[in-house]
């Protein structure tokens, strides 16, 4: 059996199935998609890729399956799903996810079309696996699908540790070995065994701290908003179709943006880190509820109205609202006194973390530095933000 040296998990044993999947163009593409997208504009060492992360998820899935006593074809299918779980991501990962969902009507974990034919289907079938079954596992369907995409999935376990390692921050450090050892099934639900409320709390705290310091850093949010708008303009201005767009790498997308007249300035700004600045950075209690919950079309309407009020170009204004604060991990199931209970019902930390999430929430309005005063004043009037 081969092994691959990994910066987080040391040596990862690679079975024949994984070896064959790793050699496919679809998985090799992930070498050219950064795991943390625009976060690397904040943390220079955060240059790890979705390929590395996929290997880590595969490794943790192997460990979990062994501890749970799952073997044979069921284990093989989950290992394949773990390795393939990010194969549906577009360039810059989550930063272009909204574009792809709107244009193609599917989420990145809906990979049935990618596995239905071509090299991936050939590899899976050559190892006795049904591509439909593997695609369902990637989407988190069924009992074992919870390991790949669920409240206690190995995806989250890997990216928290890996992202903390590569950014150099201590906040994402979790005891993933303890988490894996505590996993069990109760009535087909993946839960943490008795005595592991604190284990679940540790993961929740890590995720909350990583959100505040890494994932939602304002510079990354500004760059992400610029990239998302530029991607939309690229598709509107060229004959590039959404399917081709979704299969790009980071570098190919940046090159396409650079070569398109309508997006060339955005590409230059992203490449040289000449980003928009914050014209508004408002707390949750200062923002009207209808603005917090606004959908994409409403937000675009806000942008146009703010630009007209400020007398600047419509492309100069970006409104970034993260939606209602939420913390889905609080529904993690843990065994307490022999009963399966929700973490939110057992942990006094949960409400404190929810309050912290609300306190950290910000609505952003961004503009080129020279337009910030006018855009800020216009945005406060248009959006009804309390100064």
DSSP strand tally: 9
User: What is the share of helical residues?
Assistant: 40-55%
Cα gyration radius (Å): 22 Å
The profile of the biggest β sheet is:
3 strands, antiparallel
Could you say which structural class the secondary elements and strand pairing correspond to?
A: mainly alpha
Task: State the shape.
Answer: globular
Overview of this protein structure:
This protein is mainly alpha-helical and 387 residues long. Helices cover 54% and strands 11% of the residues. It is built from 21 helices and 9 strands. The strands form 4 sheets. A 3-stranded antiparallel sheet has the order 5-9-6, with helices on both faces. The protein has a two-stranded antiparallel sheet with strand order 1-2. A two-stranded antiparallel sheet has the order 3-4. Strand 3 and strand 4 (189-192) form a beta hairpin. Helix 4 (72-84) packs across helix 9 (142-148).
Tell me the layout of helices and strands.
Blueprint: E1 2-6, E2 10-14, H1 16-22, H2 25-28, H3 50-68, H4 72-84, H5 97-104, H6 112-116, H7 118-126, H8 131-138, H9 142-148, H10 154-167, H11 176-182, E3 183-186, E4 189-192, H12 197-215, H13 218-237, H14 242-246, H15 250-259, H16 264-271, E5 277-283, H17 289-292, H18 296-310, E6 318-320, E7 333-336, E8 339-342, H19 343-346, H20 349-360, E9 362-367, H21 372-383
Antiparallel strand pairs: 1-2, 3-4, 5-9, 6-9, 7-8
Helix pairs in contact: 1-4, 3-4, 3-10, 4-8, 4-9, 10-12, 12-20, 15-16, 18-21
